[in-house]
Amino acid sequence: MEMLGRTRDDLPTPSPLVDLDIMAANINKMSRFARAASVGLRPHVKSHKCAEIARRQVENGAVGVCAATIREAEAMAEADIRGLLITSEMVGRDKVVRLIQLTRRQPETMSVVDHVQHARDLSEAAQANGVVLNVLIDIDPELHRSGIPAGAPAVALAESIQKMPRLNLRGLQCYSADSSHVPGHAARKKHSTEAMLPAIETFLELKRRGMPVDIMSGGSSGTYDIDTALEGLTELQAGSYVLMDVDYRRIGGMRGAEFDDFGQALTVLATVISRNHAGQATVDAGYKAFATDRPFGPVPKDLPGVTYRFMGDEHGLVEWRDDSDRIRLGDRIEFVVPHCDPNVNLYDRIFCLRAGTVEAVWPVARGYA
Amino acid sequence: MEMLGRTRDDLPTPSPLVDLDIMAANINKMSRFARAASVGLRPHVKSHKCAEIARRQVENGAVGVCAATIREAEAMAEADIRGLLITSEMVGRDKVVRLIQLTRRQPETMSVVDHVQHARDLSEAAQANGVVLNVLIDIDPELHRSGIPAGAPAVALAESIQKMPRLNLRGLQCYSADSSHVPGHAARKKHSTEAMLPAIETFLELKRRGMPVDIMSGGSSGTYDIDTALEGLTELQAGSYVLMDVDYRRIGGMRGAEFDDFGQALTVLATVISRNHAGQATVDAGYKAFATDRPFGPVPKDLPGVTYRFMGDEHGLVEWRDDSDRIRLGDRIEFVVPHCDPNVNLYDRIFCLRAGTVEAVWPVARGYA
Fold first, then answer.
1. Nearest CA to A53 among A27, A71, A85?
2. Which of A63, B125, B163, B198 has the smallest CB count inside 10 Å?
3. What is the rounded distance in angstroms from the CA atom of residue B331 to the CA atom of residue B272?
4. How far apart are the C-alpha atoms of B50 and B362, rounded to whole Å?
5. How far is B364 from chain A (nearest CA, A)?
6. pLDDT tens digits, chain B, 369 residues: what are they?
7. Which A residues in the span 281-300 are in contact with B, Cβ-Cβ below 8 Å?
8. Which of A89, A144, A330 sits opposite B91 (nearest CB)?
9. By C-alpha distance, which of B224, B250, B322 is closest to B26?
């Protein structure tokens, strides 16, 4: 059925909504910021998996986009988004084959390496297929998730890669996932700076050794104004800023208890489907409608005093403290989502609203690995 | 790319796998059980959202299937699965329009009602569209999620519905979500019996009053052998038994600490993409690959002593206690999922394996509301 022109009252629920004006303001603000900081903005599409959002980011000055998965990168390439950096190690036959196909289509495509064995595997596959693969070395910010330690191990890996003619070493990546959500701007600055400096120092060392590296990529929405102030960072890979969520709001900003540098553009719309008890109502949105990886749930939008509680796969309870009839059977409620990345990943399409009306429906590249 | 004939080594990751032999054994076992108990089996597709699985359930004797959402029910109807019961209240214009369309296609379709206002809304829509809507009254097992209280309130609602010529009251539904996961069979039996008896008593009261009701639906995979022993239950709506998960395994069975009446047919396949530290390796499966609504994560299959820890949207850490090289870069690991329903919901397709080879790829009806 046609969705364009529908309003909150007649859309299917649960469904994700994006406020196009808030999103545009977020995109513009981060673009202006990166330009002023003389840092390239390559925003991460893992937060939205949506080519139409990526297109707007690139049109506003982004040098390309980051992707976490080969599927995300393929979806961006299908939409002719250029300048792809896949920020996860592409290991195993399926991913390497697809990385090579993608590189044939967009030769500037980059991915990351954190082990000499992986570099050799990529090099052999590139040789066998007659392509050159562009790589960044993934530096571990001592998180032990992925990456090679900064300093001597990374330099040694860089020297090995330099000897592999089918690999083109473009630089380094260091993503300090821990830093992005440290509460309080000062504490976050200290955490992220300590995590990033060894990687940046390694990048400068590679330059001193005459290696033609030009990319030092890192940073998040939570540290965008912190990491870009570090001498040597050339690219920012922030992602969540475009949609935002409860999680980022809670980390605190430069001036206040809330991080409100960017607006909450993403919500999930739900319907009240049961209303049999005073002070509570059941909505059609539960574990399958909201990200559940945080110790908090979604927050009802523009309904102060109303809270949400998970009640199973397809149900949630909204509660309020008075006996009023303020929420009724059939009401529509918007919720700011707990964590935007896994929340978008629950849906195949986003409804884009302006002035309360659906102006576009955008596909989400999720579900396939 | 063609996926049929692929093995664990060359499938995309992360991806959900179903072991066809284990699944078939689960389907057969529950079908035989329900037949022996003289209870109709209408299994819930919320656990798998997959028409091909539903087809096998119906071919093995199920009287139809339950669906939690209109989208699931539509997907089943598109695959000519008959006997649909939508177990959530269809409230709001979008859902009611689609319920009517579905009922035109499959007139036996049922949904549930827990409020007289909702019954009136359905009745008016049915009248305006010239259809008869079949309904069950949804009884609240004192969970306050959905449903009307058993006893007088439910009887009054039944009498109101009897006066609405376009609504056909078929009976009651009572789903005690809390009961299904009570640890220990004896405690679970007590919990579920106390929750279900008031609903069943109400069902018998409607019969005594001469109402032509014939369906008393309830039960879960965790209580399948408990609820079906209750005199008066006519239908079992268990779902998870077909795939199983860590969550159900932990509730304990009739004889042991593990509930192993049904086999774990569903896993998620992941790849080791980083391997830079002793006793740990990083896989490409995190919050977007596994359900995160439980206080525990997935369990590596056939790897005793190896544990999993979430490390973000696309990453997880597997850890083991010795310095051995037992897990290497590029290895494939299967994980039993924490909670099957929201886990299946993360994917658009399931790879079906027999003897280690993909025999079929089945679509999952998720993502759209």
1. A27
2. B163
3. 5
4. 7
5. 9
6. 689 999 999 999 999 999 999 999 999 999 999 999 999 999 999 999 999 999 999 999 999 999 999 999 999 999 999 999 999 999 999 999 999 999 999 999 999 999 999 999 999 999 999 999 999 999 999 999 999 999 999 999 999 999 999 999 999 999 999 999 999 999 999 999 999 999 999 999 999 999 999 999 999 999 999 999 999 999 999 999 999 999 999 999 988 899 999 999 999 999 999 999 999 999 999 999 999 999 999 999 999 999 999 999 999 999 999 878 999 999 999 999 999 999 999 999 999 999 999 999 999 999 889
7. 282, 284, 287-288, 291-293
8. A330
9. B224
Distance CA A113, CA A210 (A): 20
Nearest partner of B70 among A358, A356, A340, A273, judged by Cα: A273
For chain B, how are helix, strand and coil distributed in percent, rounded to 5? Answer: 35, 25, 45
A148: nearest CB among B71, B276, B291: B276
Q: Are A113 and A170 in contact (CB under 8 A)?
A: no
Using left for φ > 0, alpha for ψ between -120 and 50, and beta otherwise, residue B113 falls in beta
CB A283 within 8 A of CB A289: no
CA distances for B276 relative to A145, B51, B104, B323, B360, angstroms: 9, 42, 59, 12, 36
Q: What is the CA radius of gyration of chain A?
A: 22
Q: What is the ipTM of this complex?
A: 0.97
CB atoms within 10 A of CB A211: 17
Two tokens, residue A94: 């399926």
Contact present, A77 and A106 (Cβ < 8 Å) = yes
